[in-house]
């Protein structure tokens, strides 16, 4: 009942709504912008990568993080937005990948596993890449 009076979020206020509100307030009070525009150089790098990969793999993501100094989350969001903008392109690529995967699977011997499957946990790797990105951003030449 109180949420109806106090909140413009509607009759239900979830813990996610509250957490998001406090996180945005903390950033605002710290003087951090909510969003920053990507530079033309960053966009050129992202566009070039998207032309090759609608769903970039880990190696490509690491390369993009290092060259653009954007976070993994920013890069993932950009690719997601691009895929939504160009669904026909993505569908054609996915069909081709599926056909290629079927052809590769047909060539395997019984019991043979496909090569290139990474079974290592990725969380540690992403933390290391993000720490490297933060260190690069903290250098005086990037301030």
TrEMBL record:
- Determine if Nucleus is one of this entry's keywords: yes
Regions recorded as binding DNA: 31-90
Listed A to Z, the keywords are: DNA-binding, Homeobox, Nucleus
The source's superkingdom equals Eukaryota
Q: Which Pfam families match?
A: Homeodomain
Q: Which InterPro entries does the record associate with it?
A: HD, Homeodomain-like_sf
Q: Which residues form the Homeobox domain?
A: 29-89
Location in the cell: Nucleus
Any one Gene Ontology cellular component term annotated for this protein: nucleus
The terms under GO molecular function for this entry are:
DNA binding
SMART domains to which the protein is assigned, alphabetical:
HOX
**Protein name as catalogued:** Homeobox domain-containing protein
Species of provenance: Exidia glandulosa HHB12029
């Amino acid at each position: 009942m109180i949420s109806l009076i106090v909140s413009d979020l509607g009759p239900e206020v979830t813990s996610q709504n509250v957490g998001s509100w406090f996180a945005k307030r903390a950033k605002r009070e710290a003087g951090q912008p909510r969003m920053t525009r990507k530079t033309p150089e960053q966009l050129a790098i992202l566009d070039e990568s998207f032309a090759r990969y609608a769903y970039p793999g880990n190696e490509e993501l690491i390369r993009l993080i290092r060259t653009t100094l954007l976070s993994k989350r920013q890069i993932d969001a950009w690719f997601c937005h691009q895929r939504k903008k160009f669904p026909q392109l993505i569908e054609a690529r996915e069909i081709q990948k599926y056909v290629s995967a079927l052809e590769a699977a047909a060539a395997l011997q019984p019991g043979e596993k496909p090569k290139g499957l990474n079974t290592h946990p990725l969380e540690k790797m992403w933390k290391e890449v993000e720490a490297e990105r933060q260190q690069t951003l903290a250098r005086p030449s990037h301030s």
